[in-house]
């Protein structure tokens, strides 16, 4: 050990260093509360979702030089290793580029994990990844007439894969992935391919089963479609329209009420829409969407009974209702501004839109008056009632529109039987995925349960027939004619049901094949076939009246804040129905 005396210069320098250390310590200590607050803020954004790793179900097609392609169908560990065993090798040794087209078996939300081996270059290797909701979308280029896009989520990208490592990418909706080796004379050793499936890990509390296996599959598919869209917020689509569209939420929330019960994605989305829309603006720029917000609040309160949450909505709700009441003219007709919209298939029919808006005014003000009474706001409730009385003096014509006819029936402006004469014409032709729910509701009001069941079978069942594992943004049963399924390679002489159809904002491959607004049959089957109808907030009182139509039996469950309701209905030889019902003691069950 050596020792030397400190000179004055050294002492000064050492003092300066010590001073800097003390200052730094003080700064860090002072910043700790801010750092902690930032961490708390970050925790407030903690995602509601988890990630699971899914192995491909099958290889649809290989192109070019590929050895041991079947390896990618084996479950992986998520870890690269030095063994060099069990490797799929892609090589570009000529003009044809090596590619793998994979099917994960069902629609997923998330991305892709790739585990690589020791390819000969020892350097990163470029691959092109194309995610698709259909086989043909995964084979497509962006742009052009087929209209594949990267809107809202990147589904077509060129990335670099590491040598002997792990790579993760993607945040979109997909079932199919096409992996193409990009560079000439390149080699890629691929150990594993897994989908990173991001979803809320929540139980399916509600259930439905009946004597028709197709209806059972439709109920489950509607539930799964909404489940995929229940991310941190409630989206409309997981590939495109990864946004909170309030009107589109209404059938989604009906499905959540029937299947999952209380879920924070709903209230987060309702509050986000409220906070993003200072009055007198309309939510999403569409007057009906502000009205759907009211209807969702009413339905949510009746299912969950959260009075504290409802009271937080009171100031905005009161102003919104008074704004709506001001949108009537001296002829008792609505004169709503903003985008005048029901759904896309009806968007060119101004007469149908007026009829639908008149009905929506009545429906939303009825719901608003009910909520106002629950909140003790008698003045606003009376204002809504007076406006409803005026609106009912002007009854528009539906102009043959199934959308308008359904809303006119649900609002009480038309007898349900009159609406059903339009709704039952030509079966499921001129149905739509969004407003199909309200068409079914109006048919139930008219007592046409068998007709509604047949429309569910042909319309939503038609999507399943074409390979769907989730329900689509739009669908027309005429698309099925001479068309190939979404899980098939292009068939010469057949139409591509995905790339060759669509309209408005969803032309071609931009068309979303997982859209929550299309889930209507799920809550409809629970409400009308199982017969479970909520009568009082918090499910304190429910009515259970089954309507089996042409079914022999139906059974299922329904979530309430107090526990699960279970029902089973069996049709007897004389046509009557025998029912067994189990309900929490806090829930009063009315049977009629």
UniProtKB/TrEMBL annotation:
Residues of the Alpha-L-rhamnosidase six-hairpin glycosidase domain: 205-396
GO biological process: one example: carbohydrate metabolic process
Positions of the Alpha-L-rhamnosidase C-terminal domain: 531-588
Domain of life: Bacteria
PANTHER family: ALPHA-L-RHAMNOSIDASE SIX-HAIRPIN GLYCOSIDASE DOMAIN-CONTAINING PROTEIN, C, PUTATIVE (AFU_ORTHOLOGUE AFUA_3G02880)-RELATED
Protein name: Alpha-L-rhamnosidase
Organism: Deminuibacter soli
Taxonomic lineage of the native organism: Bacteria, Pseudomonadati, Bacteroidota, Chitinophagia, Chitinophagales
């Amino acid at each position: 050990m050596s020792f030397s005396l400190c000179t004055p210069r050294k002492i000064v320098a050492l003092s300066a260093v010590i001073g800097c250390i003390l200052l730094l310590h003080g700064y860090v200590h002072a910043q700790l509360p801010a750092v902690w607050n930032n961490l708390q803020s970050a925790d407030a954004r903690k995602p509601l979702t988890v990630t699971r790793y899914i192995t491909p179900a099958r290889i649809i097609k290989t192109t070019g030089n590929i050895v041991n392609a079947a390896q990618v169908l084996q479950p992986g560990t998520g870890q690269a290793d030095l063994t060099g065993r069990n490797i799929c090798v892609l090589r570009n040794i000529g003009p044809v580029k090596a590619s793998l087209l994979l099917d994960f078996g069902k629609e997923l939300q998330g991305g892709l994990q790739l585990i690589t081996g020791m390819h000969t270059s020892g350097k990163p290797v470029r691959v092109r990844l194309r995610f698709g909701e259909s086989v043909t979308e995964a084979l497509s280029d962006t742009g052009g007439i087929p209209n594949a896009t990267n809107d809202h989520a990147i589904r077509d990208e060129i990335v670099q894969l590491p040598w002997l490592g792990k790579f993760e990418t993607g945040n979109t909706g997909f079932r199919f992935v096409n992996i193409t080796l990009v560079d000439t004379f390149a080699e890629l050793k691929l150990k594993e391919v897994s989908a990173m499936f991001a979803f809320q890990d929540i139980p399916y509390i509600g259930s439905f089963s009946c004597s028709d296996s197709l209806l059972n599959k439709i109920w489950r598919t509607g539930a799964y479609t909404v489940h995929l869209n229940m991310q941190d917020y409630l989206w409309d689509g997981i590939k495109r329209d990864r946004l909170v569209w309030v009107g589109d939420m209404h059938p989604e929330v009906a499905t959540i009420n029937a299947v999952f019960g209380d879920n924070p994605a709903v209230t987060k989305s309702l509050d986000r829409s409220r906070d993003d829309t200072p009055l007198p603006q309309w939510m999403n720029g569409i007057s009906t969407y502000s009205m759907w917000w009211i209807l969702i609040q009413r339905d949510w309160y009746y299912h969950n009974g959260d009075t504290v949450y409802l009271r937080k909505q009171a100031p905005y709700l009161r102003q919104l209702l008074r704004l709506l009441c001001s949108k009537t003219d001296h002829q008792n007709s609505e004169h709503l501004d903003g985008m005048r919209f029901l759904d896309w298939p009806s968007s060119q029919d101004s007469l149908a839109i007026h009829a639908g808006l008149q009905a929506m005014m009545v429906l939303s003000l009825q719901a608003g008056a009910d909520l106002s009474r629950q909140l003790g706001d008698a003045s606003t409730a009376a204002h809504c009632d007076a406006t409803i009385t005026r609106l009912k003096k002007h009854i528009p014509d539906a102009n043959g529109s199934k959308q308008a006819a359904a809303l006119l029936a649900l609002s009480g402006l038309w007898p349900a039987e009159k609406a059903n004469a339009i709704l039952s014409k030509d079966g499921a032709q001129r149905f739509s995925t969004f407003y199909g729910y309200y068409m079914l509701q109006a048919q139930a009001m008219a007592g046409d349960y068998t007709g509604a069941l047949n429309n569910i079978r042909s319309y939503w069942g038609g999507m399943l027939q074409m390979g769907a594992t989730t329900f689509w943004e739009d669908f027309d049963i005429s698309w099925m004619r001479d068309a190939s399924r979404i899980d098939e390679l292009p068939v010469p002489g057949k139409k591509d049901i995905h790339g060759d159809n669509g309209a408005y904002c969803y032309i071609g491959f931009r068309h979303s094949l997982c859209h929550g607004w299309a889930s209507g049959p799920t809550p409809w089957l629970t409400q009308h076939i199982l017969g479970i109808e909520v009568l009082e907030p918090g499910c304190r009182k429910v009515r259970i009246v089954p309507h089996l139509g042409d079914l022999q039996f139906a059974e299922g469950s329904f979530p309430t804040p107090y526990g699960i309701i279970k029902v089973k209905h069996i049709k007897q030889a004389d046509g009557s129905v025998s029912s067994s019902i189990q309900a929490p003691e806090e829930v009063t069950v009315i049977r009629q």
